[in-house]
Amino acid sequence: SEMLTDGIIDLYRAGKITGARKTLQPGRIGYSFALGGQPLYDAIDRNRDLVCLPVERTNLPHVVAQNDRVVSINSTTAVDLTGQAASESDGHRQISGTGGQLQFVRGAYASHEGTSFMCLTSTYDRKGERKSRIVLDHKPGTVITTPRTDVMCVVTEFGLVNLKGKSVPERARALISIAHPDFREDLERQAYENRLIPRGLTL
């Protein structure tokens, strides 16, 4: 991982993360920085199961891909109907930095039998109004963190779709299927109106 978190330490303490099947640093959990509560720092202290490494040894896709069956799990704030993931800005409003998202997405995809997951809740609340995180397109000025060519699996609480190898109409249909049900009809209408799904096309 780039960032070692409380959740990873909880999984480590529960015996769910061991690093036993890794090609690089087998039996050890590699990370480049840690941020969390005191139990995390207590776990790090003099623990030979954990190793802090330079970012070029944790993040670079060709390094990540040296491990087989890598699973990368990233969160995002919005995905458009072509599969572009915006994880760092909402229009011109900056939310976070780029981080290692794209590096881990590409590293997992290049890994033998690897899989990349992009996760998001289907909606968010803005000033008391519920809005969809799956959208026709992103606001002007929004930074695309992971382009559609790299996005593999997208997950919401309504399911999972794999976008690899799909056409734009197939992608739009798949993403609409995991949007919140309250927004699906409107998203489908927008997809037809903007020719993401050509009229008369049967998928």
Describe it for me?
The protein is of the alpha/beta class. Helix content is 28%, strand content 23%. The chain is built from seven helices and 15 strands. It has helices spanning 6-13, 38-44, 55-58, 61-64, 101-110, 168-177, 181-193; strands at 3-4, 29-31, 33-34, 50-52, 71-75, 78-80, 85-86, 89-90, 93-94, 115-119, 123-126, 129-132, 134-135, 153-156, 159-162. Helix 6 packs antiparallel against helix 7. The chain is elongated, with a radius of gyration of 19 Å. The model has no long low-confidence stretch (mean pLDDT 94).
Give the structure's gist in a few sentences.
By secondary structure, the protein is of the alpha/beta class. The chain is 28% helix and 23% strand.
Unreliable stretches: none
Helix content: 25-40%
Average per-residue pLDDT, rounded, comes to 94
- Taking the alpha carbons of the first and last residues, their distance comes to 38 Å
Tell me the series of helices and strands, N- to C-terminal.
EHEEHEHHEEEEEHEEEEEEHH
Beta-strand residue percentage: 15-25%
Can you count the beta strands?
Answer: 15
Q: From the alpha carbons, calculate the radius of gyration and give it in angstroms.
A: 19 Å
Which structural class do the helices and strands define?
Answer: alpha/beta
Largest sheet: 4 strands, mixed
Can you tell me the overall shape? elongated
Widest beta sheet: strand line-up: 5-10-14-15
> Helix tally?
7
